[in-house]
Specification:
This protein is mainly alpha-helical and about 425 residues long. It folds into 2 domains: about 200 residues, 3'5'-cyclic nucleotide phosphodiesterase, catalytic domain (Catalytic domain of cyclic nucleotide phosphodiesterase 4b2b), CATH 1.10.1300; about 180 residues. About 70% of the residues lie in helices and about 0% in strands. The longest helix is centred in the last third of the chain and has 51 residues. It is elongated and about 130 Å long.
């Protein structure tokens, strides 16, 4: 060829893909089967999130592609597509063993259409072969089984698997964690083998690629879970500033409030102790006057004993509650004495002497080692410690409130009773 002709010739792509062969036309009976099945599948239990009309249409599409790839005769292609459309119709009647219900429904419909008995048996055997425990012996049975399991070789195989997972949770009450489900899917994919020649050609490479992708997904998920576990059990070498500041502020506030409560209780104890000392000294002196050798002046005004008695009771009640408020209080854990080995229990606070002294040294050391290794456990003990400090403060301030209330009411009653006594004497 002359160079001018070569230069004028259009350039061809280096690796042009051959055009796909045209898709074969489906028979009228297949179209009628599709029209019959579609409205029935839309009435399936809504808990079936995978075995839906979309799944059946996908299987029929894959069966059509396999029939074209295998260049099946028209009667066999027709039988394969009819079996594909009917293979999950039995879900209207049962979940487990639905294939046998699908066979019965397909047989009834085909008999009504006047289909040949031998061809009906052929279609029923194809549907039977989609059951997990039924072998696929003929090439047509293998092709329908491959089309039914073609989801394993699909690009969105993981999304389809999630639909099965949801369906099992809703319909069968079977729940799986995400790692367990991913592992189950990988094992299932590894165990599956496509059987027909056309199925192997169409799906084998894609299945292998999806298996590798699932392995990579599992490794990535395991690495992520390991990192998360390490973060949860990591030490506090680099603690969060906000959390540490919060705990420091809480501890500081609790210590200040506890110190204030003790000072208020001490003040009430001292004040009422002085009042009690004065009353007791006064009554002691008056009692000595009532002796046979003393004066009888106290007996001439016995009504004065009323305000003194009120003041005495007031001082006694106020000082008692103040002492109870200032009294050291250690939370008791009787169950911890019976089970001293439970050093990691969420209710045990290893930072508080009132609890860890009930443990043996060995159990305390083991608990502290676990505490230092686990960030969450350490924070949990700090929170527990703050909680029990709050319980003690609550008790202190309640008793202080009672003490101050008694003192206030008692002083008012004392003043009123003394005023009544003076008015009575006048």
């Amino acid at each position: 060829m002359p160079a001018e002709a070569l230069a004028a010739a259009p350039e061809l792509p280096a690796a042009a893909k051959p055009p796909k062969p045209p898709k074969s036309e489906v028979s009228v009976l297949v179209q009628q089967a599709e029209a019959f099945v579609e409205p029935l599948l839309t009435a399936l239990d809504p808990r079936l999130t995978y075995h839906t009309l979309a799944h059946t249409a996908y299987v029929a599409k894959q069966a059509h592609a396999l029939a074209d790839a295998a260049q099946l005769p028209a009667p066999d292609a027709e039988a394969l597509l009819i079996a594909a459309w009917f293979h999950d119709l039995g879900y209207l009647d049962a979940y487990d063993g639905h294939e046998y219900k699908s066979m019965a429904r397909a047989e009834a419909w085909l008999k009504d259409k006047g289909y040949a008995p031998a061809r009906i048996e052929l279609i029923k055997n194809m549907i039977r072969a989609t059951h997990r425990n039924e072998p696929a012996s003929t090439e047509l049975e293998k092709m329908l089984s491959d089309a039914d399991m073609s989801n394993l070789a699909a690009d969105d195989y993981r999304s389809r698997a999630e639909l099965i997972r949801t369906e099992w949770e809703l319909a069968l009450d079977k729940s799986y964690t995400t790692p367990d489900w991913a592992e189950l899917q990988l094992n299932f994919m590894l165990a599956h083998k496509y059987q027909s020649a056309a199925g192997k050609e169409r799906y084998k490479k894609a299945l292998k690629a999806n298996i590798e992708d699932q392995r990579h997904y599992l490794k990535k998920a395991a690495k992520k879970a390991k990192k998360k576990a390490k973060q949860e059990t990591g030490t506090l070498a680099e603690p969060k500033r906000g959390i540490e500041t919060m705990f420091r502020t809480m501890y500081s506030n609790h210590m200040k409030l506890s110190d204030m409560a003790d000072k208020k209780a001490g003040m009430m104890i001292q004040l009422n102790a002085v009042i009690l000392s004065i009353i007791i000294t006064y009554l002691g002196a008056k009692s000595s006057i009532l002796a046979p050798t003393g004066s009888a002046s106290f007996t001439r005004n016995p009504i004065l004993a009323v305000p003194m008695a009120v003041l005495l009771i007031t001082a006694l009640g106020s000082v008692t509650t103040a002492i109870l408020s200032a009294q050291p209080d250690v939370t008791s854990f009787k169950w911890l004495k019976k089970n001293p080995e439970i050093a990691s229990n969420r209710r045990v606070n290893l930072l508080f002497f009132g609890q860890f002294t009930k443990l043996s040294l060995q159990h305390f050391q083991e608990g502290m080692r676990d505490l230092m290794r686990q960030k969450d456990a350490l924070y949990n003990n700090m929170v527990t410690d703050v909680y029990y400090l709050g319980e003690v403060l609550d008790r202190k301030y309640k008793l202080l409130r009672v003490s101050y209330s008694i003192f206030m009411v008692g002083l008012i009653l004392t003043a009123l009773s003394f005023g009544i006594v003076l008015a009575y004497k006048m």
